[in-house]
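User: Teach me something about this protein's shape.
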Amino acid sequence: MAKHKGRAWHSRLLAAALGVTALAAATSVWTAQADTTGQPKGRDSSAAAEERPVKKVAAEIAHASEAGPRGVNITIDDGPDPVWTPQVLRLLKDQGVKATFCMVGTQARAYPDLVKAVVADGHRLCNHTVSHDTTMDTKPEAYQRQQILDAERMITKASGGARSQYYRAPGGAFTPYSRKLAASHGMRPLGWNVDTKDFEHPGAATMVATVKREIANGPTVLFHDAGGERSETVAALREVLPWLKEQGYAFGFPVR
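Assistant: First, the predicted structure itself:
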């Protein structure tokens, strides 16, 4: 998997993450699990979520769709963002499409109402670490653990109790350790098959063409709702979602 670009964005996130407290003990264990949609039930809270037992999942990187061989998984990374996430949510609702939002911990902490809106619309959450460090695979295991588990705390608190169903390493920087750690906490490692490269601002038409050309490679499509100006992403989604429906694809979530 290619590393994402946008070093300035990643540097800002890393700076924001310096204020995050590391885990008190390396043996601390999450014991929370959301329902199959990632939504809290009833009067749930992040504290109550921690009391639910974790269902361990496979540590292999997922690409397939729960919707079957003609399924498509729309995944949205790096948010939430106060400008672009609401626009993406409105578009998805208009199209009747559910997506997986891979959230950066500091962004989730900053915009908890948006995290709750994502959950309320029936989308699933994905842990994208505290600070989107694309060199995760070169760092010590203690650092990887802090990035993953602190982000999970932030996302769960921001959502009001819904836990991440997946873990996506920034830039695809997975390690055997990070995959096993995430899986042991109920988060299936999540890859992608189609990279729209929207972070490079290639233009909406180019992004749509990429999806049309590469969707045969696999069902999981990568977009972003933060990390920069995302009007091209919104425009591309507006065109590509109806096209996928016309081709007989069904939208679903990645396998767990």
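Now, about its shape. The longest helix spans residues 141-159. The two ends are 20 Å apart (CA to CA). If you'd like, I can walk through any region in more detail.
User: That's plenty for now, thanks!
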